[in-house]
Amino acid sequence: MQPTKRQRSESGGGPPADPIRSDVWFDDGNLIVQAHNTQFRVFKGPLCHSSKVLKDAVDNMGDSKGVDECPVLFLSDSATDLGHVLRTVFYRWAYPDGEPLPIGVIIAFLRLGRKYKMKHLYDNGFSRLSAALPATVDDYLFGDMKSKILFRHPEYSQRRAEVVVDGIVIARELNLLCLLPAAFWFASMYPEPLADSASLLPEADRRTIQLAVKPLRLAYADYLFGWLDEAIVPSPDCVQPKACCDSKIQRSLIIWRPPGLSLNLGWNPSTATGLCKHCIALGQKHQSEGRKKLWNKLPSFFNLPSWDELLAPPPN
């Protein structure tokens, strides 16, 4: 097959490389879709039915011919992203709705679902990524990520780390700012798992995360553990006032002593070491209220709009 002018121009003027045949290839297909140097042989009908944008592109395509005189539709997308989307169109069983998907597939659904106005695909990708980067603290702590995203690591912190960098990048690309507070929070809380991939983030975002660490630690200690500093005024229902007061003072000193505890939003039983049952229950109540207060203010630590603005539907 002789390379087209489009293929020559994309190669920068040098000898064009032979196109690579992808695994999405039907020998009786009547359309070749090419992304960079990768070709997909598919059927016009189902492709056009899946997206009006793609239908318009097919209707307006040139007369370039590929294998067996099939017309060639050139797209500027990543071949990997396009492959994921074409598999959903032509192999319905490739990515079942009820099973977790790799983060790369989810990003492709978001990116190309938005570009080609494939709403079901975009919604699928968003529901999955927002399970890992949610808008509420309860969903962050207790939400079900494992049924939505296929993780490589068994550890909780490592799992979320797998999606944070990609989440920030696609959130910036598609203006999905509601995903950023949870992603930035994790990046501030667990920098170690992100050490190898943080360089992929925009410099401005890396700086924002770094500047938020100290204010977040202070707010975290205040909102979630300020109740420990009430030790000088024991609860009237406390059954061991002196022992509980002493324990609260000791725990408070540990939390405030730099660098302080890791920013874990969940309840840590060690926080209540030495306290009576009443004071433990009271502490859990205060911490639950405190983490909701902190989460409500979370966007402000990263110079983002309020949650109400972040979650508001886009204007028509």
UniProtKB/TrEMBL annotation:
Species for this entry: Mycena metata
Annotated spans, Disordered: 1-22
Highest taxon above the source species: Eukaryota
Protein name (database record): BTB domain-containing protein
